Amino acid sequence: MISKDLKYFFITLVFLCIIGFSVTIYTTNQNILTYGSPIFMIFYGISGYSPALAALITIKIFSSNYSFINFIKNITNIRKSFKEYFYVLIVTLILWTIPFIVVEFHRGKSILLNEPLISLVWITPIMIFGGGLEEIGWRGYLLPKLLKKYSDFTSSLIVGSIWSLWHLPLWFVVGTPQQGTNFIPFTLTCIASSFILTYIYTETNSIWLCILFHALDNACSYVFKYDVGMHIVVSIATCTAGFFIFYFSKKYIRLKSI
């Protein structure tokens, strides 16, 4: 039985998405607004920040002020160990090296990067607001609710599937990066990241580190030549790698000192 607060979260999420996506889909297809224009970005932001807004509104209504404040502190607490930050960086780079390995195996003489790796230093902070804050809703709110009932593996699959479906309307907004790409490989890459994000959250209990991973993951799409969702074969390899990292991390890696 789904709890009252979780129902409220999903209702709020859907409501915000309907407002944001209905306007952006209609206006861009009718040439009323263009992708990136100021008015467009207002409605784009409503849908883009809907997971975070839905989580914050739900927690504010259904939890105590103390719990709400602690939730905010979890989001903004960047004082983490070097090991935790290093893990987030390394696993992201591993995921984004998979497409290069697959392409290199088939073609040879492939190029790994479009931009210097150092570019991640200034692209990642931008991507905190360009996707990273979704984690307030996905891993900050939804994942802990699911973990009370399901295993890490099942919870990762559920959140990853919902996360990918939430992106689906972007394929109908004219001008988005998603147009011209395949949704199925994208879904597989979401599930790959979902496994890793589940480990990061369960191991560190940090929403901030999940935000950082998501932002770094998005930033890599501008730096690496081959995208993790470029082809079904690549995305299957990426998803497999994501599960392997999840399994290996749970068994052999401890980010928190006991």
Fill in the keyword field for this structure:
258 residues, mainly alpha, 72% helix, transmembrane helix, Rce1/LyrA-like_dom
TL;DR of this structure?
The chain is an all-alpha fold. It has one domain. Helix content is 72%, strand content 0%.
What does this protein structure show overall?
Residues 119-219 form the CAAX prenyl protease 2/Lysostaphin resistance protein A-like domain. It contains 11 helices and no strands. It has one domain (4-252). With 258 residues, the protein is mainly alpha-helical. The mean pLDDT is 93. The chain is 72% helix and 0% strand.
* Structural class by helix and strand composition: mainly alpha
End-to-end distance, in Å? Answer: 35 Å
Cα radius of gyration in angstroms: 18 Å
Spatial shape: globular
Low-confidence stretches: none
Largest sheet: none
Average predicted confidence as pLDDT: 93
* SSE topology string: HHHHHHHHHHH
Beta content comes to under 5%
Q: How many structural domains are formed by the residues? A: 1
Share of residues in helices: over 70%
By DSSP (H or I, 4+ residues per run), the number of helices equals: 11
Number of strands: 0
GO molecular function, one term: endopeptidase activity
Pfam family, one: Rce1-like
Keywords: Membrane, Transmembrane, Transmembrane helix
InterPro entries: MmRce1-like, Rce1/LyrA-like_dom
List the helices and strands and how they pair.
Layout: H1 4-29, H2 38-48, H3 50-62, H4 65-76, H5 82-106, H6 120-129, H7 135-147, H8 152-167, H9 183-204, H10 207-223, H11 232-252
Protein name: CAAX prenyl protease 2/Lysostaphin resistance protein A-like domain-containing protein
InterPro entries: MmRce1-like, Rce1/LyrA-like_dom
Pfam family, one: Rce1-like
